[in-house]
Amino acid sequence: MIHGFFALAQVPDPQSPAPFGVWFLATVIKMIGLFTVWMVGVAYMTLAERRISAWIQDRRGPNRVGPHGLLQPIADGVKNIMKEETLPPYANRALFFLAPMLSFAPAMMAWAVIPFGASWASQWGRIDMVFADLPIGFLFVLAITSLGVYGIVLAGWSSNNKYALLGGLRSSAQMVSYEISMGLSLIPVLLLTGNVTLSAVVNAQATLHVWNALSLGVACFIFVTAAFAETNRLPFDLPEAESELITGYHTEYSAMKFSLFFIAEYANMITASAMIATLFFGGWDIPFTSADNAGAVSFPMVLLSMLIFALKVAFFLFLFIWVRWTLPRFRYDQLMSLGWKVFLPVALAYIVIIAALILALDAAGLARGLVYGLILFGVNAVLLGLLFLGLDRGRIVSPASPPASVARLASLRQAAAARARLSAMEPR
Predict the structure, then answer these.
(1) Environment class of residue 333 by beta-carbon count within 10 Å: exposed (0-12), middle (13-18) or buried (19+)?
(2) Biggest CA pair distance of the chain
(3) Crossing angle of helices 72-82/20-56, nearest 10°?
(4) pLDDT digit of tens for each residue in the chain (428 aa)?
(5) Domains of the chain: which residue ranges?
(6) Packing angle between helix 217-230 and helix 344-363, nearest 10 degrees?
(7) Dist. CA 364–CA 173, nearest whole Å
(8) DSSP states along 109-175
(9) Model's pTM, two decimal places?
(10) Distance between CA 138 and CA 410 in Å, rounded?
């Protein structure tokens, strides 16, 4: 019966779109496969975080449950499912239960438009390795992922706990601040690509032979930093801030609802890593060949493109974990300063510079290719140097920089030394 269905659905040209029946079946298979891999990946991200943090801190980490601790996420899940559910006496019951789901769902929905491999030239027609290649592309991702803040705010408000409420308010202010910079950082990608579809962004990077991380370095830096803030990861984990707010917005949660917030955090990390890899690091594009960008390709090349995409996502997941266990947390005023006083004006100025540069290169008749990309890389290298030089002056966001001037610090040190000498001269 199945073979008969495929025989009816078969089309002669593998580059043409597959018939509806084949497309529907392929979509169901992609949904089941990716959702399974994604959920297993989210679960084992908890183990990866604990093992990598242990490696950074020169200790072992979880290693007792299963070989090398591989069954630890399953044990944690069973424990959380069996734990007692608690409900604060004055909490808003409906919103209290709804908030964890609102935090988790947007990260999963964003994968609908993220391409995770090259198109497959099957015998039944072209099958795209993306659920819905929407013409709104990364605008859909920005719109959907921004809904995650509602879950955090509702969790803080519905708990009727002052620490949870403060965590929710911090999160809403933080996400609003950095979503603006994140959105502005993608406008240069739109200007260079001429299309917001993520597949077109991948193909445009292959055409230039230069990743957007090099040709649009300032935009990449802003986007990656804003992604840390959007996912509430260190050094931007002010909504949780254990030393100040206990555990922030999920203080009153327990059992599986408590775990769902951590699942949402790791899910957002995976989504953010996939977006960084797609927008600025070539996505699934196979390097040193353009065969995968001309149309649908053979199944082995599809698997190779999916492997390349997975390796890029894994690298950025490691970066998220590495930064958490390396950098200290910003103060809240430093967090707001970075978002509004640095990233917002830099992103606006960068849009003007890149728009003028692209207009000048196109007016000069330069074709989109390697030379075009190298010119963009050179300009961005200079701009990044100026940006880092400005940020490194220790006046705006540096956690180690004092608010006092250098002269004021010198006078304070002299006064302290004088007091120490007088103290040493006093009789004991």
Answers:
(1) exposed
(2) 104
(3) 100
(4) 444 444 444 555 666 767 778 888 888 888 888 888 888 888 888 888 888 888 888 888 888 888 888 888 888 888 888 887 777 787 788 888 888 888 888 888 888 888 888 888 878 878 888 888 788 877 888 888 888 888 888 888 888 877 777 777 777 788 788 888 888 999 999 998 888 888 888 888 888 888 899 989 899 999 999 888 888 787 877 666 655 556 667 777 777 888 888 888 888 888 889 999 999 998 888 888 777 777 778 888 888 999 999 999 999 999 999 988 888 777 777 788 888 888 899 999 999 999 999 999 988 888 888 888 899 999 999 998 888 877 766 555 554 455 567 787 788 888 888 888 888 777 66
(5) 87-419
(6) 150
(7) 44
(8) HGGGG---SPPEEETTEEE-SSS---TTTHHHHHHHHTTHHHHHHHHHHHTT-HHHHHHHHHHHHHH
(9) 0.83
(10) 50
Contact in structure between 355 and 195 (CB atoms under 8 Å): no
**C-alpha to C-alpha distance for 280 and 186, rounded to whole angstroms:** 10
Of 325, 326, 318, 329, the C-alpha closest to 45 is 318
Q: How many CB atoms lie within 10 A of CB 340?
A: 14
